[in-house]
Amino acid sequence: MHHMEKKLKVSKEIQSLIAERLPGHSLDAPFYLSPEIFDLDIREIFSKHWIHVAVEPDIPEPGDYVTVEIGLNSIVVVRDDDMAVRAYHNVCRHRGARLCSEHKGSVGNLVCPYHQWTYNIGGELIYAEHMGEKFDRSKHSLKSVHVENLAGLIFICLAEQPPQDFSVMRDAMAPYLLPHGLKDCKIAKQVDLIEEGNWKLTMENNRECYHCATNHPELTASLFEFGFGYQSAPGNAEQIAEFNRLAAERCGEWERGGLPSAEIERLDELVTGFRTQRLPLDRAGESQTLDGKVASGKLLGEFERADLGGLSFWTQPNSWHHFMSDHIVSFSVLPLSAERTLVRTKWLVHKDAREGIDYQLDNLTAVWNATNDQDKRLVELSQQGARSSAYQPGPYSPFTEGLVEKFCTWYIGRLSAGLAEQSAGSPVTMLRRID
């Protein structure tokens, strides 16, 4: 057993909350507040599932690396000499010092700053002074972490046996994503935002557009909120009918042109849940910008036309992405504590696009910088409400919050499966919190 773990039964109260979750309603307050449930989330969700952590353009060259924190674990994702993507625990095999302290960098080898034990980027220990002639370096390689690359989106899994259905997502999504040429992009901008709220509130907020019309003027300048669920009423029936007509027409056009667009929805039926759909955009119909026109004049992949709508891709438990003809916006969500969450946003353009000539950074980032700030406020208001003695789970809209319900159904299902596995096998252990 890891020295940072201790035997600790999941309390009866939490087991009951999981077993008795009211379908079609928001979660009970402890799911957003409890340090014990946060530890459970790290163990059963973030340590056992495929977690989106990076994109290929984070590490374009051999020796380029990024680090990511998942609970108490630090992982280094690095490009090796053969251009493959590898991932390791960011822990020296000597006395455990962290190897890479920066979020991003480039190395020839991974050198421990403490006693200079040195590992090549294949993870092998190649230098360890003063260890004697009988010391076997081959037994002290870095501990590897499972890594998968889906059309340039990088996922890691900390489990010994990762979920086997990543291939289902890959087979379905590669034809949708590959035409956008993510591997041939560069990161124009990265913004890390800390939300003072539970990670599940961040994800729930992302999975609906019920709040969009009144909270996201910049986003809804180009995004039709009708595409994400709406209740038809006399006041909007004409608009919804027109959107549905446009969506069917454009989707058929894109499909005939070899660009997959139809909805695939597998959010709550797979361990590695996901959903995708390509939808038309408003105004110029080209990109998620204030005027609906492309933000970059250098189109992605081999695209020759700009009006290709917006392809949305959601993954359980921690990411969403928007792929357009000219740029990609990629989001990953990482829990920091029961009431703090990191939202990491990356804007990607073609690697040959020139800032100030092909694109203006302010224009490229305007919509999602504004939207992220607005969502941060909404998540924090929800977190404050969950702390109140008056809070109780409220009903989701069957018209606009179906994907929120699918997220919560998936989440509760994965916790239940984890607890069942524990009770059938090894003693329940939980990560000890360090405040």
Provide an overview of this structure.
Helix 5 crosses helix 8. 39% of the residues are buried. The N terminus and C terminus are likely disordered. This protein folds into two domains: 319 residues, Naphthalene 1,2-dioxygenase Alpha Subunit, Chain A, domain 1, CATH 3.90.380; 113 residues, Rieske Iron-sulfur Protein. The chain is built from nine helices and 19 strands. A seven-stranded antiparallel sheet has the order 12-18-17-16-15-14-13, with helices on both faces. It has 435 residues and is an alpha+beta fold.
Please describe the structure with a list of short key phrases separated by commas or semicolons.
single chain; 435 residues; Naphthalene 1,2-dioxygenase Alpha Subunit, Chain A, domain 1; Rieske Iron-sulfur Protein; 24% strand
